[in-house]
């Protein structure tokens, strides 16, 4: 992902009919069918690509099994070279999780990943919607996970804490106060979102929020939450801004506490 990862509704309107662009709606099926969706979008609900249980210290957290991911994308007609544009109706947090999953599963080996700024509401303000399912032709999709990913495990996070890396807890202040990784700073992922537009705050405003937390370029940054959903949004934002040294603690607090690691309260 790069600075082009975040796209507007206008960009989507201009590219939606491109045969190499697949729009992915990650809302529940009843919302997709009943409320409506971006014309031509395929439905891949969040629960469809979410493992049921985190797996402790191994680093894989709640990522889906690669074979299940492959079958899921094939059933929606996704090709390895497609540009995937994901959206939800929750400020993009679930869409971001889809994109991070695709990244870890190697989609950027041939294809590209895009995040619709302002979620579904950004589209509905000025563009038509449709209801019902979209018929697609099943594809052939191979999962080839890259040799290097941003994922880190419990041991790597513990080492980052010792080395003075900027460990970022993206949960609410209340959750953070109840217990967090020692030394972590609290950056509620919603601080980067404009509640009125439902999209990201202007770039300068986002940069200012990050800087106020010590999240700056040149620092080693480690992100976590509870089960890696909320950090997906923050990860996408940081990649959009051009941050390079960003680690993704997939196991998050679930794995940290399961491993018996210490927590801090304040």
TrEMBL record:
| GO MF terms, alphabetically ordered | thiosulfate-cyanide sulfurtransferase activity
Q: Does this UniProt record's set of keywords contain Repressor? A: no
**Please, which domain of life does this record's source organism belong to?**
Archaea
Q: Which residues cross the membrane?
A: none
Spell out the Pfam families in the cross-references: Rhodanese (PF00581)
Task: List the InterPro entries hit by this protein, alphabetically.
Answer: Rhodanese-like_dom, Rhodanese-like_dom_sf, Thiosulfate_sulfurtransferase, Thiosulphate_STrfase_CS
Q: Which UniProt keywords apply?
A: Repeat, Transferase
The chain positions of domain Rhodanese read: 17-132, 161-265
**PROSITE patterns assigned to the protein according to its UniProt record, in alphabetical order:** RHODANESE_1, RHODANESE_3
Protein's name in the database: Thiosulfate sulfurtransferase
The species is Halocalculus aciditolerans
């Amino acid at each position: 992902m790069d600075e082009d990862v975040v796209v507007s509704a206008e960009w989507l309107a201009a590219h939606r009919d491109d045969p190499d662009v697949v729009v992915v709606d990650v809302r529940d099926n009843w919302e997709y069918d009943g409320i409506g969706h971006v014309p031509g979008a395929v439905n891949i609900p969040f629960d469809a690509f979410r493992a049921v249980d985190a797996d402790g210290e191994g680093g894989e957290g709640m990522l889906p099994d690669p074979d299940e991911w492959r079958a899921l994308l094939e059933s929606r007609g996704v090709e390895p070279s497609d540009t995937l544009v994901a959206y939800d109706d929750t400020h993009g947090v679930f869409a971001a999780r889809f994109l991070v999953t695709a990244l870890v599963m190697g989609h950027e080996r041939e294809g590209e990943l895009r995040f619709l700024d302002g979620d579904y509401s950004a589209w509905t303000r000025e563009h038509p919607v449709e209801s019902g399912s979209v018929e697609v032709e099943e594809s052939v999709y191979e999962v080839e996970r890259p040799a290097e990913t941003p994922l880190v495990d419990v041991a790597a996070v513990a080492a980052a804490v010792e080395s003075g890396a900027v460990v970022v807890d993206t949960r609410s202040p209340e959750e953070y106060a109840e217990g967090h990784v020692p030394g972590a700073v609290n950056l509620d992922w919603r601080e980067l979102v404009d509640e009125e537009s439902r999209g990201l705050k202007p770039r300068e405003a986002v940069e200012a929020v990050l800087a106020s937390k010590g999240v700056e370029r040149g620092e080693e940054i480690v992100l976590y939450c509870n089960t890696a959903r909320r950090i997906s949004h923050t990860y996408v934002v940081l990649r959009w801004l051009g941050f390079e040294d960003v680690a993704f603690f997939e196991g998050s607090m679930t794995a940290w506490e399961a491993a018996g690691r210490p927590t801090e309260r304040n």
